Amino acid sequence: MIQNTLLALTIVGWLGTAEAAGGETGLAFWPVFNFLLLMGLLAFALRKPIGVYLKTRHEGVKEEVAKAEAVRLEAEELKTKYQQKLSSLDEEVDKILNEARKMGEQERKKILDRAERLAEKIREDAIIAAEKEKGRLIRKLEQKTLSGASVEAAKMLKNKATQADHQAFVQELIRHLETQHG
Q: pLDDT tens digit string along 85-129?
């Protein structure tokens, strides 16, 4: 139906344009009339399709606005949710840092305790080693002193002792060795 109406309007417009082009000066009214008639017929013929289109378009725009509003509300909720998460992340980071500090402090104390125990053991070992060395040096000194004294005593005895003194000394030495060694 729309095609037939458009065809009729085109023919009427063409006829009106032809008469106007014919050279009659009083007929300048017809091209304007034809144009207005064409517009009127188009408005009448397209009123329902344009109305339906505009109504559909209006409803589509309303739906898009509603969807956009829903998306905006969802975005606001997500924003709030993530801000809360960020806030809790700050707290979580503080908690983790505090825990790490505590663990570091505990580890530091363990290391210091081990170091103190090791230092004490080293001191004890050094004291034991010093005592052993002291004993060894004292024995060595005693041996040197006894050895030196023995040599001096032997020289003195050789020079001043008689055979009887020598015999008494040997007897005394044997008795002394027997009592020491058993």
A: 887 887 888 888 899 999 989 999 999 999 999 989 999 998 998
Q: Which residues contact 13 (CB under 8 A, 6 or more apart)?
A: 34, 35, 37, 38
Mean pLDDT of the chain: 81
